Amino acid sequence: MINVTVNDQAILAALRQLQNHTANLRPALKEIGETLKESTQQRFANYTGPDGVMWAANSEVTYERKAERSGIPLTDGGTLGDTINYQLPGNDSVAIGSSMVYAAMMQFGSTKAEFPHLWGDIPARPFLGISTSDESEILSILRTYLESAF
């Protein structure tokens, strides 16, 4: 049996440098959070979900109740879109969402049968998620972060 031992200090030093750099992903995660916040807020301007599908239009009942407003789903008061933010709950994750109590109902939809106080069924209008463009941007951020280790 033949054993070959390579003692390459440059490679070992580079691996240590990469290990130290990736021990704290918070800078990259913060950039990802900012990117996702911006793209999510842009969905409110485009009325589309992360999959590119336009949100369902408001019902006639909603138009009647909101006659003085624009009638565009999720954008009348601007509150939901304005409350999109991100958090870094640790060194290895980023969370994005809204503090508004009705955000989940807008994201997933609901029915009057489930929530009798509603004036009608609420179709899902997803605004949270990662689009194809978001995925590319996240991968670019991670590549840049890893390259900055050297």
Arithmetic mean pLDDT: 86
Please summarize the sheet with the most strands: 2 strands, antiparallel
Q: Indicate the proportion of strand residues.
A: under 5%
Query: Gyration radius, to the nearest Å?
Result: 22 Å
Give helix % range.
40-55%
Distance between the termini: 37 Å
Number of domains: 1
The side-by-side strand order for the widest beta sheet comes to 1-2
Outline type: elongated
> How many β-strand stretches?
2
Question: What order do the helices and strands follow?
Answer: HHHHEEHH
SS summary, helix count: 6
Low-confidence stretches: none
Computed structural class: mainly alpha
Subunit arrangement of the protein: single chain
In a few lines, what is going on in this structure?
The protein has six helices and two strands. The chain is mainly alpha-helical and 150 residues long. The chain has a two-stranded antiparallel ribbon.
